[in-house]
Each structure stands twice: as structure tokens, then as C-alpha cells.
Amino acid sequence: MFKKLISKEKFADLIKDDMVLMIGGFLNCGTPEALVDIIIQKKVKNLTIICNDTSFPDKGIGRLVAEKMVGKVITSHIGTNPETGKQMVDGSLKVDLVPQGTLIERIRAGGMGMGGFLTPTGVGTMVEEGKQKMTIDGREYLLELPLKADVSLIKGGSVDQAGNVIYNGTARNFNPIIAFAAETVVVEAEKLVEIGNLVPDHIVTPAPLVDFIYDPSQN
Q: What is the CATH classification number for the domain harbouring 73?
């Protein structure tokens, strides 16, 4: 009935030069490392990565930066990855720094079909440059626009073969939200189980949001 399992080769075929990718994780906790491995092996270029942070040079998203496969990152934090800062300074990588709460809300807005939202965060700072500003009841707000991606890559703790996902603790982080905000969603399963083996009330990302499941243990 469900044919969502995807091979290493089929996943590689999905990823193209110049794509916009959303990747889950917080300092690599909850990042789908096996999917990152495949992207690195394919050696695509000029990716735009939307993520919470650029991790470390030798882990997760940071490895894509270190391999110079990324042309732009939209993120809230780069301080743990010196390579990101180095490439930003030399001009080879464009970095769009977004306050963390604003970043995840922009992603949520993209996933929910919203045209944007108003926030006071960043008013009077460099964050407001180039953005529309509104005054409501005497308070200034910035109009922040939604973010969407071609492909979202998420990491699930337990995933059934229909694509229902349960996350392990704080590895949940941005993963459930970015699952709403892309044309194609691929989940890397830490543990793949049969349909019916997950407690329905524990499911966070439901199967209709997931297009493909990658099981590293079977590849």
C-alpha cells in the first residue's frame, strides 16, 4: 500500500544544484546525517540551506558548508562553525542571519500558506533593513515573509512504513515545522517499524506530510 522507502540512489536523484533545502537539527542534534552524507557524495553545488544553525565544520550541515557546496544559508546562528564565518567574510557564502523565533515562524508561515506576519523583533536594528515596517497601536512591527524549500530533510526517532514520525527528546527541534514547508519531505529513520507499532497519540509528524523514508540500515 505504501511505497515510501527510498534508496540511496533515488534520494541522490532528488537533490540538484541550486536547490533550496531545509534541514532539521540543533547543533547537529536531530540532523539527518546519512542524508547529508549522500548529498556530499553527489557533490552538488550552490545550495541554499535553511536551518537553525550551521553546526560544526565536521558535523551535519557544517560539513556541507566546509565542502563549499552552499551558496547561501538562512539561519539563526553560525558561531560554532568557523568555516561559515570564513566563507561569509571572503564573500563565497551569503549568510542571512535571522532571529531564531522569527526564523521558525517564517518557516511555519511558509508551511501554513500565510503571506507573512508582524513582529517587533529587530525593530531599530540591522534586522529591519529592506523590510516593510508598520505601526499598530503606537508600536512598530516588521513584516516578515514566509520561507519555503524545494526539499525538507528531517530526522525521525521511530518511523513507520507509512511515514508517521515520532521524535526522540530534543532531537525534535525544528523537524516537525520544516516538514510542512517544502514541496518534498524526506525523513531519515533512526528506527523503522511496521504500521501499527507506533502509539497514535505520540505521532508528531503524520504520514501525509512525508513523501519518502530513508532507512540507513537498509542501504
A: 3.40.1080.10
